[in-house]
Amino acid sequence: MHALRKNHPLRRIVLASAATVSGMVLLLSLKPHASPQNVLALPAPSGSASASSGTGGAGTGTRTVTGTRTVTGDTIQTRWGPVQVRITVKDRRLTDVTAVAYPTDNPRDQEINSFALPRLRTEALTAQSADIDTVSGATYTSEGYRQSLQSALDSVSG
Known about the structure:
The chain is of the alpha+beta class. It folds into 2 domains: 1-30; 39-157, Sufe protein. Chain: A, CATH 3.90.1010. It has 3 helices and 6 strands, in the order H-E-E-E-E-E-E-H-H. The chain has helices at residues 9-28, 107-127, 139-157; strands at 39-41, 60-65, 68-72, 76-78, 81-90, 93-103. Strands 1, 2, 3, 4, 5 and 6 form a 6-stranded antiparallel sheet that branches.
């Protein structure tokens, strides 16, 4: 009786082992996430108010329109690329938060940010502060968003 006959249990073991090894080789051959070099930078919001110009940092792009102030936070370097937010404050109340720069180098970055950024914006507007929860699956973006938001809020209050 041959060991690899159709009804013999050793045949199943050999086939299962070969399938497992093949699967592991395929998984280990996947390439890691590359660090993005390209970042989407959205244009400054248009309006009738004059904007002050600067080269970066908190307070860059500050605009005042009848009790409304728009401030761009610091650019925060994360593992996958820079994150920067712009806030609008009206009568000491946070009325808008916009991600100005965030990683968009590859489809995975785009997928993560398409669900993370709206959640982070909603959290910030609800909390009226940078004390917001991290979005699961977007830890680095969430941390950069929180830090840039805090720097913009510090600029407004200071």
